[in-house]
Inverse folding.
């Protein structure tokens, strides 16, 4: 499964279109992750405030979304471009890769919520593929 | 036995009360066939599924989407015993339709996304959690009779 040239354009265009609200997307996606999938809180036990609308969660959502945008800019070589992030997740954070899938789902839900008209099935499939490939690139250094 | 809190029951009922089954059903099923094209294998007799436009305008797909939503309503009305409510449907999907149960989750994810589009910010994280719990119970019940 790889992105066609057309799909890369769809992904880049869509993320450019929604970039002014990228912070909101990231914060909302992470908030949903910990509410809908409470087991993910295990990675954030070191935060004093784990409420979905609290500062740590929202700030981290923004950080994560920044990573997604970095991946968009490196869409032609995700594995190479995300090497450092992969090492971070593999050796330091050690996030179980199953969580990449569920965060991707939360991002899709938020995109659908915030951009109902724009998030057509055609854009949905391209973005879903992109997020899956992003997850694969992040897991590159795991073993 | 699945335990539902009052909040969860209220959230799920509220979501369903806002749904136009014809609209949501058609959107959900067509989105699933477009985003996960391998699911089209079960719809060989449904006519033209050649591209996204064809799928979205296909009347048989639309009709089936409504059928799916009506089944989900049965689960809503029997929330404390979805397992038995869906026993026949599970046999149908396993013995006759031979649907890989993995596909139920794919359709659920598409339904969640379609409802998010419809409800916007009213689809709060708590609503999403309740609704996904409901769908996972349905999916589990559908997969029970497979052997």
């Amino acid at each position: 499964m790889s992105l066609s040239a057309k799909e890369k354009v769809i992904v880049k265009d869509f993320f450019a279109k929604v970039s002014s609200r990228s912070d909101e997307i990231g914060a909302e996606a992470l908030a949903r992750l910990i509410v809908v999938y409470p087991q993910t809180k295990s990675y954030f036990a070191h935060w004093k405030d784990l409420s979905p609308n609290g500062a740590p969660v929202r700030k981290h959502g923004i950080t994560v979304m920044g990573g997604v945008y970095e991946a968009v800019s490196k869409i032609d070589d995700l594995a190479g471009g995300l090497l450092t992030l992969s090492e971070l997740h593999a050796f330091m954070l050690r996030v179980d890769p199953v969580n990449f899938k569920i965060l991707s789902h939360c991002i899709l839900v938020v995109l659908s919520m915030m951009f109902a008209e724009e998030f057509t099935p055609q854009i949905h499939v391209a973005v879903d593929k992109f997020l899956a490939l992003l997850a694969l690139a992040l897991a590159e250094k795991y073993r | 036995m699945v335990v539902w809190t009052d909040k969860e029951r209220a959230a799920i009922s509220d979501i369903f009360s806002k749904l136009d089954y014809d609209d949501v059903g058609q959107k959900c099923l067509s989105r699933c066939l477009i985003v996960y094209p391998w699911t089209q294998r079960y719809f060989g007799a449904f006519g033209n599924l050649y591209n996204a436009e064809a799928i979205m305008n296909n009347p048989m797909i639309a009709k089936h989407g409504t059928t799916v939503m009506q089944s989900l309503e049965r689960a809503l009305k029997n929330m404390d015993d979805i397992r038995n409510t869906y026993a026949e449907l599970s046999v149908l999907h396993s013995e006759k339709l031979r649907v890989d149960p993995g596909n139920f989750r794919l359709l659920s994810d598409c339904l969640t996304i379609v409802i998010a589009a419809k409800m916007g910010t009213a689809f709060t994280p708590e609503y999403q959690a309740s609704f996904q719990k409901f769908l996972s119970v349905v999916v589990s019940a559908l997969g029970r009779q497979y052997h």
Summary: Chain B touches chain A through 22 residues (CB under 8 Å). The two ends of chain B are 21 Å apart (CA to CA). The CA atoms of residues 75 and 85 of chain B lie 7 Å apart. Helices of chain B lie at 6-17, 21-35, 52-56, 59-77, 82-85, 87-96, 102-119, 125-142.
